[in-house]
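Hello,

Following up on my earlier ticket. Below are the two sequence lines again, exactly as submitted.
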Amino acid sequence: MSLTKGKGSGVSKPTDLLQGTLDLLILRVLELQPLHGWGIAQRLRQISRDVLQVRQGTLYPALHRLERQGWIRARWDDSENNRRAKYYSLTRDGRRYLESEQENWERLSVAINLVLGTAGE
Amino acid sequence: MRWTKTFPYRLRALLRVTRADAELDGELRFHLEKQIEANVAAGMSAQEARETALREFGGVEQIREETRDARGLNLFYDLGRDVRLALRQMRRSPGFAAVVVLSLALGIGANTAIFTLAHAMLIEPLPVAHPEQLYRLGDRDNCCVIGGLQGSYSIFSYPFYLLLREHTPQFSDLAAFEAEARTMSVRRSGSPAPAQARKGQLVSGNYFSTFGVGMAAGRGITPADDRPEAAPVAVMSYRAWEQDYALDPTIIGANVTLNGAAFTVVGVAARGFFGEAFRPQPADFWLPLSFEPALRGASTLGSVLDRADQCWLYVIGRLRAGASVPESQARVNVELQQWLTGHPEIAGDSQKEVPQQHIVVTPGNRGVTSVGNQMAEGLYLLFGISGLLLLIACANIANLLLARGIAGRGHTAVQLALGASRGRLVRQALAGSAVLAFAGGLAALFVAYAGTRALLLLAFSEGTHAPITPVGSPYVLGFAFALAFVAALVFGLIPAWLNTRGDPAASLHGAARTARDPASLPSKLLLVFQVALSFILLSGAGLFTATLRNLEEQRLGFKTHGRMMVQVDPALAGYSQAQLYGLNQEISERLGRAPGVAGVSYSLYSPMEGHHWSDDVAVEGRPPNSGDNSSWDRVGPNYFEVVGTRVLRGRAIGPEDTAASPRVAVVNETLVRKFFSGAEPIGKHLGIGDKSHVYDYEIVGVVEDAIYSNARKPARPMFFIPYFQMVDYGDADYRALQLRSNYIGTIALRYSGAAAEVERAVRKSLAEIDPNLLVLRVQTFDQQLQAYFAPERIFAGLSTLFSALALLLAAIGLYGVTAYRVVQRTSEIGLRIALGSSRERVLRMVLREDLQLVLAGIAIGIPGSLAATRATASFLFGLTPGDPGILAGAVAVLAGVALMAGFLPAYRAARVDPMTALRHE
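Thanks for your patience. The regenerated structure is below:
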């Protein structure tokens, strides 16, 4: 799996942190509204102002894994111009998981910022 | 993650892997199209938009693969692919697959066939209600009628059984039954058909209710039927109903004549019920115990029903809920002690031993198991033999897989280098083994089917009605496939592990050049192991074959060729003593005139029938109380000539020896040696019974020793007396026994021509004499002897067949390993030849290494064989487990096979052209 940052080279080694992060981002996007895979990728890109680009090879395994874990569910539905698309939406479990993970993330990012902010001084 | 929530998803996905894949494809296609649209919207041309989108998209297959992984059902999905791959591989190398599947089929099939028998005899509980509540009083096989003390009491008299039944509240029911089903003469009343020999068993009135046996028709025997004044009734087995009466429902309420007495059939037992013990010949009829006297026909032996000193009944009870085994055991032992104290005549002179008499209460869920126990040892031996074959087959397959893995190492290296995980490759290899094992297991079912039938035929030469269906039970099927998959693990894991080991880069650079081969040592070890096991099997085969030969070629004291034995029971046809003389005369005359018959005689019993009559004897010139015991037999004129026993001195028993003539006896060599210390016995006297009978019979002749009852033991002292010569006995038992001995048991014939035709003529003549005369069995003397040696024949035959297979497998393994080694060392051998080594030296070098492996195997095999065959000592005759001749023979055979298997590759090595060899790779 690779999470590509901007137009630069891909992150070479996937880590649990990154995987967990992608899950978090997908769940967060789906919290707003049900979306198909392409929509999720687009939305991630828009929200992150082109910083985060998710490859299909990363996105779909992640979606299926989240579905298996019971955090999101999928349903085929008509898309904008009447084409069938697979829409993912957040489950109750997924919402609860997102909330707890979001808190974790915030605590973690505050902590990292603290470290980064003070380490040089 | 909640398993219960995700499970349906997993299941659905597993069941519809392809559907899930299709969904994913749809999803991806949608994504791609959206991307193209987006690109067009951003101002690209249609073509450009498409190409860019595709490029960004990356490898679809990879996405699919990773998504499948994410779905978490790759294990199953891969399994399907692995199995398909394995099937493709099997098709690519059919020879390899054939060797593997065949050797597995034989190994698993043989084990399954033996398991089928073992399961029926030793494992399966009785097909009755709650078999686990059943307990047997006693733990021994004391069949069939015995008096005196038993130590551990296992067989009981009728009066004692009645007492036990009244005084053991721990058992809700206590049933008694005859230890063995007895042969009876059976005719449906009013039917013109001749009497048939069927098995009947006397059982207590509560037998069917205690065991909880269902009825296929009618009712069971009840306690009300088990009274002397009750109307005589019988219950028939389903098998008899089916085979003898074609399931005729009118049989219920019909009369049958059993041993001349009329019984009314009141019921047919449930289909699966074959009695309370495993018997090759289960009961066809069950009758109430009270009718024991009525079934004696014209037999002069008194009824044992009311005798406190004659034990003939096994007892099984249903333990009451809440009662414990120790409690019930304590109870029955109190009863036993009181009984023996109250009946001092039972212990006789051994009153001191009464306190040691006891009863052990044992589980009865399988009924009386002692019948199976006799065969259990033989079955364990067969298990050992077939287990060895399966192990050898596994070792051989492991080696073949290893060799194939080495050949395919380049391929494996590519797979590893391309990032396949080692676990994945091991799994793939194991799936291959599993497919092979499954195919082997399927083929094994056919082998097991044929093998079970063959074993039954061999073990019970008279045929059996025992409830054994080849490959019939789910346990047997389960056993076969469990064995197959254990085997797959055994032979699959080692090569799978070894073949995926090592550095892929090194393998790709040319494994053949590396001097040290990681798979070479395991391969050699496997081969040594295989040779060692083969050696054990081979030496076992030698021992059993030699045993059979020793047994059959020992001086038996009779000749079997061109002789026929006809077993009859005139007592069951109701012949009285007064009619017997006429019957014997008629038999001699009529059968003597039958076509193909060259000589006729008769006796109470003939050699190798499996039983004999013996008694305490009084011999002239012996000190009193010497405790002499001898076998004895009544024989007609010409008897020794007809059975082929030589008369050494004096005369044989002839037509001149009648009831009115002086009483005479002919003795065997062992009797002369034991009781006369080898001195001339002719003119001396002996008799059956105490010393008052010492002058009853005058010895007129000596015959050579003949084996009558046990071929593994030296001949017993034995003497022969003419029919109808009688002695006065005060004791009623002796009187009855003497009268009983006047009935012909076996008619002995010399014949020429086809045995089947002679048998037909003999049966016809006997039916002309009297259609009621019950013919129990007709077989040639050869068959009678073969039936006696059936177990030995099975051991010898099976172990020889399996060793031949083991040798073949060892040869294949050796050939493979040697050929591989030679290919690996082609350049080295070429160099040797180029440097002047002679071709013979190369040949010798290769063969020497081959032989070293085999000798290492033998070195392990010899102690292994000594340990393994020690357990078989009781099956051997005329030699011991460590017989040096047999071991040497096994060494020679194995070495010979090794040389033959190694010769072709060695020869090829010696023919190596040095120039080609040096250019190799």
